[in-house]
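Postdoc handover notes: sequence design on the structure in folder B. Input tokens:
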């Protein structure tokens, strides 16, 4: 049986104004609650205690005292275990050998200048009178050797140029003779052949002129090459002269005060048995000096990446070091910076956070202060960090992010 469809003539229903009012009130209330919760989580602070693994650096620093290069030792004035103060003389330099070394370097500097002058003058004669050069016979002999080497270099260059000049002159002569031969041949031949001989002579003359031009170019290139080599040698000698001057000035400063002094106060923990009256080609460590104990120790914490926000720079924390007496088991500290992340043996990815321990306020324990106790410890400890004025949001957000990573 067919049913008849009917049309409702009434207008469609519209949302009631009261429903929109309730919806707006709910949204506003939710926003106010969220804002109040955020402000409350930021305003509410508490003391957060977290346990991290970490270590602190040794309380003392070791500083090597080195003997400069080319400075011979005469005596060592300290012994192992001896306490030294800042500015104390640690070793005595060999003044006699030091002055002899300075004299030798000054002679090398003078010979360097003599060789540069000879190279720039371009003289091929080594007959310069060395009697005008101040110095002993050995120095004059070395000066003569330098002048001979310089003159030999200029003679070698002159021989190369002379060979090229001779080749060019020979070609010039050959071109002139060929031209005269062509003229005589043309004079003795019939007029019908004379034109052909003239063309052949012109071709030969053109080839000889091209060869002469090539030799002229080779001469110019050789002169440029030799001048460049001379300039490079002079530049190398100038660089060597600057090094000699700096070395002489350095050794003269050691000759005026022939002592190796301690830069800081501390204790001598090692003295190497170096040979005396013998210079070394490079800096050589003579003494290991243990510097005085500072009041601030550098330490490192391993912090999970999602908790790095808790340890922002300059934040003050309280560090508890396990295994130490009560005098230093609780030490104030502050964060100095965060370095790159690394992966521990258990696979956890952490960030290394640097902190500075302040031991100035620790009470002595049995006559030892906090610095002494840390100095005598193993240097590694489980560290419990207490963060004061921690907000609720900063404590909850890392856990919230960690929970979100599972989904």
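Designed sequence:
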């Amino acid at each position: 049986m067919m049913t008849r469809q009917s049309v409702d003539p009434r207008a469609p229903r519209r949302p009631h104004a009261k429903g929109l009012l309730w919806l707006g009130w709910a949204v506003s209330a939710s926003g106010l609650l969220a804002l109040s919760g955020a402000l409350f989580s930021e305003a509410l602070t508490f003391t957060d205690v977290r346990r991290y693994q970490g270590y602190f650096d040794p309380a003392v620093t070791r500083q090597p005292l080195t003997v400069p290069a080319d400075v011979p030792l005469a005596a060592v004035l300290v012994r192992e275990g001896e306490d030294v103060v800042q500015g104390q003389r640690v070793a005595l330099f060999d003044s006699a050998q030091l002055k002899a070394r300075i004299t030798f370097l000054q002679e090398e500097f003078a010979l360097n200048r003599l060789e540069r002058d000879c190279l720039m003058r371009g003289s091929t004669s080594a007959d310069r009178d060395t009697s005008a050069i101040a110095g002993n016979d050995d120095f004059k002999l070395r000066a003569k050797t330098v002048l001979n080497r310089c003159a030999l270099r200029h003679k070698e260059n002159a021989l190369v140029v002379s060979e090229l000049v001779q080749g060019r002159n020979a070609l010039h002569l050959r071109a002139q003779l060929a031209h005269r031969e062509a003229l005589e041949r043309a004079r003795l031949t019939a007029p019908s052949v004379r034109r052909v001989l003239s063309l052949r002579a012109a071709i030969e003359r053109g080839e000889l002129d091209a060869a002469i031009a090539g030799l002229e170019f080779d001469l110019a290139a050789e002169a440029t090459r030799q001048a460049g080599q001379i300039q490079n040698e002079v530049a190398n000698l100038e660089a060597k002269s600057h090094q000699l001057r700096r070395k002489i000035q350095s050794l003269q400063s050691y000759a005026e005060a022939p002592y190796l002094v301690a830069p800081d106060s501390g204790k001598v923990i090692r003295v190497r048995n170096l040979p005396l009256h013998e210079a070394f080609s490079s800096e050589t460590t003579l003494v290991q000096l243990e510097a005085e104990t500072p009041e601030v120790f550098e330490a490192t914490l391993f912090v999970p990446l999602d908790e790095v926000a808790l340890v922002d720079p300059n934040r003050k924390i309280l560090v508890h070091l396990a295994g130490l007496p009560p005098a230093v088991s609780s030490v104030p500290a502050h964060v100095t910076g965060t370095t790159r992340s690394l992966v521990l043996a258990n696979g956890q990815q952490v960030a290394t956070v640097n902190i500075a321990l302040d031991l100035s306020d620790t009470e002595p324990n049995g006559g030892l202060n906090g610095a002494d106790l840390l100095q005598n410890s193993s240097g590694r400890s489980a560290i419990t960090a207490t963060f004061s004025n921690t907000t609720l949001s900063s404590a909850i957000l890392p856990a919230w992010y960690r929970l979100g990573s599972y989904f």
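Context for whoever picks this up: Residues 191-256 form the longest helix (66 residues). Don't rerun without checking with the PI first.
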